[in-house]
Specification:
Helix content is 8%, strand content 18%. It has one helix at residues 133-145, and strands at residues 5-7, 14-15, 33-35, 42-43, 56-58, 65-66, 79-81, 88-89, 102-104, 111-112, 125-127.
């Protein structure tokens, strides 16, 4: 696998996948950069699963769901921008993204799947909307990140 950069053509609305771990770019291990146009409204499950060299992704503003396993095993992913239109983050969406260090979960998110951030051991900066704190804390801390995330406690 030698493709390091992909530019998806403007006008494309969907990046299909064959299933949770068989997306169009699944195991594109040399892929470092992908440019997704604002016309994309859907990114299928598992689309970037195993793209170990992918470091940064900007999800288009029209996408409303980050499907299950979309970025799983993108072990070098450091930065992800979740647009304010996203309402759901699927199960294991960012699982094993070991270099992901910060994430902002917009207030539009009402659902986060199990293990969405499993084994994200460097995830030190998390911005969580107040309406999601009770749902997100167990997902991010109790089981998957352990003591790696310092959170302020308000009395």
């Amino acid at each position: 696998d030698t493709i390091t950069k992909v530019i998806i053509s403007p006008g494309i609305e969907e990046i299909e996948s064959g299933g949770a771990s068989s997306g169009v770019f699944t195991y594109s291990t040399a892929l470092k950069e992908i440019i997704i146009p604002d016309t994309v409204v859907k990114i299928g499950p598992g689309t970037f699963w195993g793209c170990k060299e992918l470091k940064k992704v900007n999800i288009p503003k029209k996408v409303d769901t980050i499907s299950e396993r979309t970025f799983g095993f993108c072990t070098n992913l450091e930065s992800i921008t979740i647009p304010s239109n996203v309402t759901s983050i699927g199960e294991n969406a960012f699982g094993m993204c070991k270099n992901l260090s910060s994430i902002i979960i917009p207030s539009s998110v009402t659902s986060i799947g199990t293990q969405a951030f499993s084994e994200c051991r460097n995830l030190l900066n998390i911005t969580i909307p107040i309406n999601m704190i009770t749902a997100v804390i167990p997902i991010l801390i109790a089981r998957y990140i352990g003591d790696h995330v310092p959170l302020p406690v308000n009395p």
